[in-house]
Design brief:
The protein folds into 4 domains: about 20-135, no CATH class; about 165-235, no CATH class; about 240-545, Rossmann fold, CATH 3.40.50.300; about 560-570 and about 625-690, Arc Repressor Mutant, subunit A. About 45% of the residues lie in helices and about 10% in strands. The protein has helices at about 1-10, 25-45, 50-70, 75-95, 100-165, 195-200, 200-210, 285-300, 320-325, 350-370, 370-375, 395-400, 405-420, 440, 445-450, 465-470, 505-515, 525-535, 545-555, 580-595, 630-640, 645-655, 660-670; strands at about 170-175, 180-185, 215-220, 225-235, 255-260, 265-270, 275-280, 305-310, 345, 390-395, 425-435, 450-455, 485-490, 495-500, 675, 685. The strands form 3 sheets. It has a 10-stranded mixed beta sheet with strand order 6-5-14-13-12-7-11-10-8-9. Helix 3 packs antiparallel against helix 4 (about 75-95) and helix 4 runs antiparallel to helix 5.
């Protein structure tokens, strides 16, 4: 009850903040009431009047010293000192002649009004003085920036005149907040000059400005056709390795998905509500890492469901699926974590099922949401968390479209059908390819719909025709982006320009999968009805057995069957003995018994009784080892990992002609010591451990 009464008392009446500072009114009121109280008490107790004057003098001195330390104005110091002295003087007089007379009370009131008015005037002066100091500081900074901008403008007006033979008038210079460069807004001269002419001279402008390697001077259209924007990079941020941002905040298909960063260190967004995307990059350019960064952005979105097709054993999607399917990730509330992608197809049959489902969903949405489209007065399905967009990420999908194989061509036809009919209904695709070649870009549907384009170069010149990838863009050179993960990106909102993707590692993929598990939407009822059991049972054990089998195989690659890690010697694996092998074995045993041949190399002692040297024993392949240089070549191929080595590189390493090297590598492949990855001019041999 007492606490209730206290709460009622606290909630009624004005609330006083005793810790707050005094203003002109409360300060004057405090000073006058304090002086009156001291005078009354002093008169009643016969206090010596000089004490009040001494306290006032000490207060004036203390406020003056404090004001000097904080650099108050002179009038402020004088006003505060005078207030103390006047108050002390009145108190001394009132203690002598009596504080309860009309003369004393009237003079005290007059002093209070004067102190309040003076304090208000001084406060306004101090505010004006501070504002003027800040304004002066800003004017000084602006003057310095203006001087820097004027110098930049004059320098580049002269440079554009010298290199491009165009006289421009600089309207503005913006220094990038990242400190990596600046932008120049210039007006073109009359007479038909266009920004394209300046853009075509980008390499010469960069050389004339002595920009560091990897930095460019790129021209683009301005606010109208008579203006040009010149972006000048002075710091090469693309040579830095940057991890994917740890900010896993919610994204949306409508606000754009970050795919990397430009040369000015700002993020570049891909808007895919109506657009498809095409990503090309040779082996070793960082294309797989780019796909993972894209999947990370899709996982963070609250209105996107990601379906992945990767016929290369599903490698693009497995890191997003297996930790969740194996129960390795658990949410804070104890609930299981959903996979980072909504559906993964790593086999031909599963991919065909997924594409058929996507087509049915698109058609069903066209029929089932007519009322919604009419109500919203639009022909584009309003994508939201309740009706999510489906993003089909198809690794090496462009090669599927260009394939001559009849079965693979059927997949390509389904992909084109999805691209053709599903734009308005919220089903879009992201295709990847190994190169920007005519075979990849010959399809009109791809060129027309894939307006978001990425070319990861990694310094590779073969199969990277940037003029076909980015028609109309000039001055793009592969040597401008020699770093892994770097290349060029264009969107309908921004022309083709240098960019780089973030590095994303498996541990971060697991973190993103766990952090975004409760953010993934569910397929809407209309679409789920069209998808049917093919979609509903996508995570059934028999449908995902290939994922678990592959993981088990990867875990048991070792020195011996069932032992993880190390070199896998398939020739020494325990296998069922064929009739031919049994006959050969018995024949060798009879020869050994009759003629006493040399001991088997698997024994630990030699014929002279000495112990065999320790080391790797490849005797199981005796008689089939090939040339003497082959073991070193096999080790070199294994060291390259999944990238493999071209036959030409092996020939250079071995110092042999290509014909000889190809024959030996082909024989090694037939024995199972190598795997050949056929990819036209980019074909490579890969060690079985990394195939």
């Amino acid at each position: 009850m007492a606490s209730t009464a206290t709460a009622k008392q606290q909630s009624s009446g004005p609330v006083l903040d005793w810790a707050a500072g005094h203003g002109p009114v409360t300060g004057a009121l405090s000073a006058t009431t304090g002086a009156f109280a001291i005078a009354t008490t002093g008169a009643a107790t016969a206090m010596p009047p000089g004490w009040a004057l001494a306290v006032g003098a000490a207060g004036a001195l203390g406020h003056t010293v404090a004001g000097i330390r904080v650099r108050n104005a002179g009038r402020t110091l004088a006003t505060r000192a005078a207030s103390w002295l006047i108050g002390a003087g009145w108190t001394t007089w009132a203690m002598t002649h009596g504080p309860l007379t009309w003369a004393a009370l009237g003079s005290l009131a007059t002093i209070g009004v004067g102190i309040g008015a003076t304090a208000r005037s001084v406060a306004l002066y101090e505010e004006a003085r501070e504002d003027e100091a800040l304004a002066a500081e800003q004017r000084q900074i602006a003057a310095e920036l203006s001087a820097e901008r004027r110098a930049i403008a004059a320098e580049w007006v002269d440079r554009i005149q010298r290199v491009c033979s165009i006289t421009v008038r600089v309207v503005g210079v913006e220094l990038w907040e990242t400190g990596a460069g600046f932008s120049i807004d210039a007006e073109l001269p009359p007479g038909g000059a266009t920004w394209n002419k300046i853009a075509a001279e980008s390499p010469r402008l960069s050389a004339d400005a002595r920009l560091p390697h990897g930095c460019t001077a790129t021209a683009g259209p301005g606010i109208h056709q008579g203006r040009v924007i010149l972006d000048v990079t002075t710091v090469n941020v693309l040579e830095e390795k940057r991890d994917y941002p740890t900010d896993y905040s919610t994204l949306s298909i409508h606000t754009g998905i970050p795919w990397g960063y430009r040369t000015n260190a700002e993020q570049i967004l891909a808007y895919l509500r109506e657009q498809c995307a095409l990503i090309v990059g040779p082996t070793g350019s960082g294309k797989t890492n780019m796909v993972h960064a894209i999947l990370a952005g899709f996982a963070r979105a609250e209105d996107i469901l990601t379906w992945v097709i990767d016929l290369n054993a599903g490698s693009a999607g497995l890191p997003w699926v297996l930790p969740a399917l194996n129960g390795e990730l658990v949410r804070e509330d104890g609930k299981p974590v959903r996979p980072g992608v909504d559906w993964l197809a790593g086999t031909y049959d599963e991919a065909l099922t997924m594409l058929d489902t996507a087509v049915r969903v698109a058609k069903q949405r066209k029929m089932g949401y007519q009322a919604l489209l009419s109500k919203a007065n639009t022909d584009l399905l309003p994508v939201s968390r309740k009706i999510p967009q489906i993003m089909l990420v198809i690794d090496e999908g462009a090669e599927i479209l260009a394939s001559t194989d009849r079965a693979v061509r059927k997949l390509g036809e389904k992909i084109l059908e999805v691209i053709r009919i599903a734009r308005a209904m919220g089903v879009r695709t992201v295709l990847t390819a190994l190169g920007a070649t005519g075979s990849v870009l010959s399809n009109l549907m791809i060129r027309r719909e894939a307006k978001v384009r990425v070319a990861l170069t990694g310094g590779e010149t073969e199969g990277m025709d940037l003029s076909k990838m980015f028609p109309g863009s000039r001055g793009l050179r592969v040597d401008q982006a020699p770093h892994k993960g770097a290349g060029f990106m264009s969107t309908p909102e921004s022309p083709a320009a240098l960019f780089k993707g973030w590095r994303i590692l498996p541990n971060q993929i697991r973190d993103i999968t766990a952090a975004t598990s409760d953010r993934h939407p569910t397929l809407d009822d209309v679409s789920a009805k069209a998808a049917g059991p093919a979609y509903a049972r996508r995570w059934d054990a028999e449908r995902t057995a290939w994922m678990r089998d592959q993981a088990a195989t990867d875990d048991t690659d070792g020195d011996t069957p069932g032992t993880p890690g190390g070199l896998r010697l398939s020739a020494l694996s325990e296998q069922a003995e064929s009739p031919e092998d049994a006959l050969a074995r018995r024949f060798r045993e009879e020869i050994d018994a009759q003629f006493g041949t040399a001991p088997e190399p698997h024994t630990t002692e030699r014929s002279d009784g000495a112990e065999r040297p320790a080391g790797l024993d490849l005797s199981a392949l005796r008689g089939e080892q090939g040339p003497t240089w082959l073991p070193a070549a096999l080790e070199a191929i294994k060291a390259t990992g999944a990238e493999g080595m071209k036959p030409s590189a092996v020939a250079e390493l071995a110092g042999k002609d290509r014909k000889t090297v190809r024959a030996a590598l082909q024989a090694a492949m037939e024995r199972g010591a190598l795997v050949y990855r056929d990819n036209g001019p980019h074909s490579v041999y890969v060690h079985p451990d990394h195939a």
